[in-house]
Write a structure and sequence with these properties.
Elements lengths: L12 H23 L15 H26 L11 H26 L15 H25 L7 H28 L8
Amino acid sequence: MAEAAPAPTRSMAVPLTAFAAGAVVALLLGVFGTVHDPTLGGTTTLGFRTVLAMKVAVSCVIGVLAVLQLLGALWLYGKLGRPAPSWLGTAHRVTGATALLLTVFVAYHCLWALGLETGHLPDGEKVPLRTVVHGVLGCAVFGAVVVKVVAVRSRRAPGWFLPLAGGLLFALLVLVVLTSAVWYLNAHGWPSNTYA
């Protein structure tokens, strides 16, 4: 009878390194957002009238995908009281990858077209607190993505690390959607001139 391979040793170095790398990514994005001169060049509207309308619509899709990710993870971990179907793992990975790609797409348009607004607008008015919080949280999302990727790939991380990394990413995504698309829809309704 062949002996089973020994279980990998669990190490706190994995989450500590992941959080440090995530912090560096978030910080670098923030620095780029503050030094970059915002421009609409190199952006697209995907057929929507404005970049803002496109970002609102795509951010709503990201919010739905984030909720599906949470439900899928709870089901996979047996927290919903029913066994998970065999296809759920694949569906969870596909919706996660789709959410990530859409998040990168929207973040590019945010950072490239608007930058990270933290001080004063060109007319001398102060940048609204919601805008500052949204921008900082947006940068933090990509730090959390780094942490989550490490958590998913590591066999040496403590058992609590993956649920914590997933929960952190979910919470940040929801906060970013709440401070952008949901705020916009609440303040202005669905963009009336959605399509060109």
